[in-house]
Structure formats: structure tokens, C-alpha cells
Please model this.
Amino acid sequence: MDKAKMDIPREVAVQLCTEIRQQYRGKWWTLTGMWCMGCTLASKGDLTKMCFSNAPGYRGCALVNARYDSQTKKLT
Model:
């Protein structure tokens, strides 16, 4: 199976989402900052409603996907 299509473990997806949100917190003028702010506001902080939870294998957020794929690529 292609690594880009592998499921992301829930705990890992939550951790990556948290890291990304912290990195871009208050940077609403950036695309990533707006994305994270919008997701956080729309979900009201409920992890089951955040972008990464909106697809099978916790692959609903492009930012989480990219960071996960980057990290797993470094391990191989």
C-alpha cells in the first residue's frame, strides 16, 4: 500500500493536529492559520468534528496528512 494512503493512527493524528494548531496559533493572516482557526471554531474544539476526523483513517486534513507523510518518509 502506498504510504500516502495509509491510515493515520488516531493518537498520531490528534498529536499532529495539536502541533500544527500551536505552530499557527494567532497567525490568522496565513492560509494555514486561517485553516486551523476555521476548523477549531467550526468544531468548537471537539476532536470528532475536526477536519482530520472527516475521512477514513483520519485523513481528512491536508495539513495533518502532509506532516504525517513527511515524517513517515523520513523513517524509511
